[in-house]
Amino acid sequence: MRESAHHLHVRPEIIEALQQGLPIVALESTVIAHGLPFPQNMETALSLEEVVRQEGGVPATIGIIGGTLRVGLSSEEIERLTTASGVRKVSRRDLPLVVAHKEDGATTVAATMWIAHQAGIQAFATGGIGGVHRGQPFDVSADLPELAQTPVAVVCSGAKAILDLPLTLEWLETHGVTVLGYGTDRFPAFYSRGSGLPVDARVDTPQEVAVIFRAQRTLGLPAGLLVGVPVPAWAELPADVMETAIAEALAAAEARSIRGKDLTPFLLAEVSQRTGGASLRANLALLENNARVAAKISRMVA
Ligand code: PSU
Ligand code: MN
User: Which one is catalytic: 160, 236, 261, 270?
Assistant: First the structure.
């Protein structure tokens, strides 16, 4: 851990785990503050930590409280981020603002990766990464350049189908991010198990992921590793139901001129409403499953 990072506060349990080389899994807070409705967000945040523990890992939920970057949040702090209004969605460019203004913030995949790396954590579980937005090839999530420059293994169910998945994968290729399929050779499409687009390699065990992660480090490559885990089959949404809901959500966003950082949360909420909550069920199922897989991987890379 960098001594200079004095805006970083790491919980004692996690400092100890780092010192003893125990497996640690970082968890993000934007998905709980802005990606899921209350009270499921609070319940999910706590159950993801529990899942990591059941698999023998130490959970490190990351967020920002009063301008301090926190690695490991208490349940009171998690509650504060899930219930308070005006919690900023913090990606990399927002970090100096929340610190300077001593604000609360929920960290995206990009900001969570950066903070996890500052703390020395190598594995991270989330739902889906940001990507290139459909019809807006210049709206590229800061998650993508973060993956290109921060060496953390990110376990996710691909990128949300609200995004342009072919362009997202092209971007990752251009910038040297290795994309794995966990138990699949297709890139997962978040609510559905496959996008039909190929990954760079299929892996079937946490060991295989760890060997590739270590090879990246041996080579001195700066990039993170993207591990795509399909949503469990029982929670998957049929692609046509999904596509209809997404098309409607995109039209609603267009009609209301919703852009930039508000676009992802808006689309997620719209899609959830239009699928009668089935997309929310899928979202919760894949989050838990990804936390489990990330914990297994963390035991191999610790
Ligand atoms: N995936 C989800 N729900 C979310 C997000 C991803 O299932 O809420 C969040 C993540 O925190 C991700 C962010 O980093 O959306 C991407 O936002 P943007 O497209 O504005 O970069
Ligand atoms: Mn964006």
Answer: 160
Residue nearest to atom 1 of ligand 1 (CA): 128
Q: Ligand 1 within 6 A of 130 CB?
A: yes
| Per-residue model confidence as pLDDT tens for the chain (302 residues) | 554 456 899 999 999 999 999 999 999 999 999 989 999 999 999 999 999 999 999 999 999 999 999 999 999 999 999 987 789 999 999 999 999 999 999 999 999 999 999 999 999 999 999 999 988 888 999 999 999 999 999 999 999 878 999 999 999 999 999 999 999 999 999 999 999 999 999 999 999 999 999 999 999 999 999 999 999 999 999 888 888 999 999 999 999 999 888 998 999 899 999 998 899 999 999 999 999 999 999 999 98
Q: Which ligand has the minimum distance to the alpha carbon of residue 266?
A: 1
Domain ranges of the chain: 1-121, 127-302
Contact 180, 200 (CB under 8 A): yes
Q: Is the pTM of this model over 0.70?
A: yes
Q: Which CATH superfamily is domain 127-302 in?
A: Indigoidine synthase domain (3.40.1790.10)
Q: 1-121 in CATH: which number?
A: 3.40.1790.10
Task: State the Rg of the chain over Cα.
Answer: 18
Give me ligand 1 centre to Cα 264, in Å.
6
Confirm whether 1-121 and 127-302 share one CATH topology: yes
Alpha-carbon dihedral angle through residues 196, 201, 202, 204, given to the nearest 10 degrees? -160
- Is the Cβ atom of 31 under 6 angstroms away from ligand 1? yes
- Choose the residue to mutate in 61, 81, 108 for probing ligand 1, maximizing ligand atoms within 8 Å of C-beta: 108
Rounded Cα distance between 116 and 255, Å, is 38
Ligand 1 nearest-atom number relative to CA 31: 8
